[in-house]
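Much of the work behind modern protein science is quiet bookkeeping, done one molecule at a time. Below is the pair of lines this work produces for a single protein:

***
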Amino acid sequence: MAYELTEQKKVGLGLIGFGLSFSFLGVILYFDRGLLALGNLFWLIGVGLLLGWQSTWRLFTNVNNLKGTVCFVLGLFLIFVRWPIIGIIFEIYGCIVLFGGFWSTVKMFLSQIPFVGWMIQYPLMVLEQLVRGSR
């Protein structure tokens, strides 16, 4: 097996899921500061368990990822000082910059899941047909 999913990594995936769920609920419920803070806490611990603590530390302290790390930490701080909307914007930008290199891997993984893969590939097929039809 190329990638073994140990119990620790399963817990990490679960915590990442809880973190995203709490963050989503926090945004839906008018940027509730408590839910956003819990979502961030669960997400960070989940990433640490999934990648390993040393790999996570290297990811966040890498010089190439400094811009993303600063934006993410600034977003966390802004959420804690009661500016959740601006904090979420900074966090999303920081995550995009931090994990920008992983998007192609995530897309390949998601495209292999039966229903999700169809949802990812279908808009591309429609776009391709529109481009062919306009020529």
About this structure: Helices lie at 7-28, 33-51, 53-61, 66-80, 84-98, 103-111, 114-133. The chain has a mean pLDDT of 87. The CA atoms of residues 48 and 56 lie 6 Å apart. The chain has seven helices and no strands.
